[in-house]
Amino acid sequence: MGKTKELIETKGLLNIVFKDSVTGENGIMDSGGNQVVGEIKNKGSASLAVSSFFFRELQSNGIPTHFLGENNGSMIALKANPFPLEFICRLYACGSFLKRYGGLVKEMEQLPYLVEISIKDDKRKDPFISEDTILALGLMSQKELSEAKYLTLEVTETVEKMLKRKEIKLIDIKLEFGKVDGDLILIDEVSGDTMRVERNGTLLSQMELYKALVGKE
After folding, report:
1. Is the per-residue pLDDT at 193 higher than 50?
2. CATH number for the domain harbouring residue 42
3. b/e map of 77-92 (b: 16 or more CB within 10 Å)?
């Protein structure tokens, strides 16, 4: 069971149940955080709606994903063999990037679709890992790494365009990948829990993003 989702395997497929939990650090909500800092009523259903919204658009743009649909308040997805990595694409200096490179970059300075990779390991706070180390440890082949980076950029550019239609700025996004029948695909979720976005200079919460995209109060 994850911080914001519960995975239930049924007949070779995954039922992904989104919870009302919100993540952050030191009691402050932040999609980049690794701690559960509270709950928001109906946040789980909002996460499902937003993630389904993005997955459908991504698939219509030819991006392979594990998304199959929704059923009884959960997401139905292909069961993939996941890579233990997170691919983060940064468009602006914010969050942990600013903490690490604050002396070299200004807050919210534009970045050139910068891709960073971290290990999925909450106990070690998802440490960053170099591409050489990924290859040396056999976490991915060179082909898989290249495909994942390519898809990271494709997903980021597509999501950024979708958000721009609503006058929302994408700051950064975190993605996960896996393999099904030998094919590398986008897995997990694409929602306010996996990205930072802002409108008119203010960061939007998951619920605010839901209202902006799905149009429901």
Report:
1. yes
2. 3.30.200.20
3. bbbbeebebbbbbbbb
